[in-house]
Design brief:
single chain; alpha+beta; four-stranded mixed beta sheet; 4 strands; 60% helix
């Protein structure tokens, strides 16, 4: 009993000095729920209240920062785990011509031009367009001189610089590039990484029909999958 009285008196003294319940709990080892009952009648000065409020705000900010850091670390671990799983999965993947034609047909059905003007694909992502072109070359051994490109640019972009960029990226000579098209509605400055939209054309309508038909047949097969069977 004497110990409890001593602890209670000590708690009152600490509270009168402006200590928070959390601080008192750490000093004397009494739960905050008990301290709250003991100390609810202890009055604090305006200065002490303001000091505690600032401490609380600092602790809150620190807690939030810690929570954000913990969340970010957890997110990074999840992303790295997914990357490792995908890398393991992709290490077993081999793209032969059958799989390649299925992939290209599906991609072209969603992204390519459907009108009979040959194979036409447009994209603003250089890596995607390069990958698709590499697959096209692997599958069909096209005649390189039949490729044509047209850039769709914003009005503040430099045509010559971007023709050089896309020519190197796609390994298509600049002489096979049409005059670029400019969007005159451009208002905000164009970001450095935006390279415009490159429209890639290959003049072979029969090949385009084959690619589209493969894509359509693949979609038909996918639509007939019995889900949950």
């Amino acid at each position: 009993m004497k110990a409890k009285i001593f602890e209670r008196n000590l708690a009152v003294k600490l509270r009168k000095k402006g200590k928070s319940l959390r601080e008192i709990e750490k000093i004397i080892g009494i739960p905050r729920s008990t301290l709250s009952r003991w100390l609810h009648t202890v009055k604090l000065s305006e200065k002490q209240i303001e000091k505690l409020r600032k401490k609380w705000l600092r602790a809150l900010a620190k807690g939030r920062a810690k929570a954000i850091k913990t969340h970010q670390e957890k997110r990074v671990r999840k992303i790295n785990k997914i990357k490792r799983e995908v890398e393991k999965f992709m290490s077993k993947v081999s793209i032969d011509k059958t799989l390649g034609e299925l992939l290209f047909g599906l991609f072209y059905l969603s992204e390519g031009t459907k009108r009979e003007s040959g194979v036409v694909i447009a994209n603003s992502d250089p890596k995607i367009l390069k990958g698709i072109l590499n697959l096209f070359r692997y599958l069909y051994r096209p005649k390189e001189e039949k490729f044509r490109c047209c850039l769709h640019l914003r009005k503040d972009q430099d045509e010559e610089t971007l023709k050089n960029f896309w020519s190197r990226m796609l390994k298509i000579p600049k002489k096979q590039f049409y005059k670029s098209q400019f969007d005159k509605r451009t208002k905000k400055p164009t970001t450095k990484n935006y390279k415009g939209v490159c429209v890639l054309q290959y003049f072979d309508s029969d090949l385009q029909r084959r690619i589209l038909y493969i894509g359509e047949e693949l979609i038909r097969l996918l639509n007939n999958i019995k889900v949950g069977a």
